[in-house]
Amino acid sequence: MAIIITFDFPGTTQAQYEQVTNKMTEGRGLEKASDWPVAGLISHATGPSPTGWFVTDVWESEEAFRQFGVELAPLLREAGIPETEPKIYEAFKVVMG
Hints:
By secondary structure, this protein is α+β, with helices and mostly antiparallel strands. It has two helices and four strands, in the order E-H-E-E-H-E. The relative contact order is 0.31.
């Protein structure tokens, strides 16, 4: 079952986000789902929020997202991004362009 994940990282900047994504992808950045270190990502959107940086993902399953979290957590710490719990929602429908 697909899930929707949202993160709001207070005080986080675009530069910190790019630091994490570049480290995660060995400098390639994030252009397509296959750039991610684990399988299962359906979509990823990110941008500034009133408090910092916001991320919304759609994953094939919570298990795939949790596997990604194992890769992501140390990179967030290294970039000085504060720990925050994601909000997780069951996806009713996912439409891709």
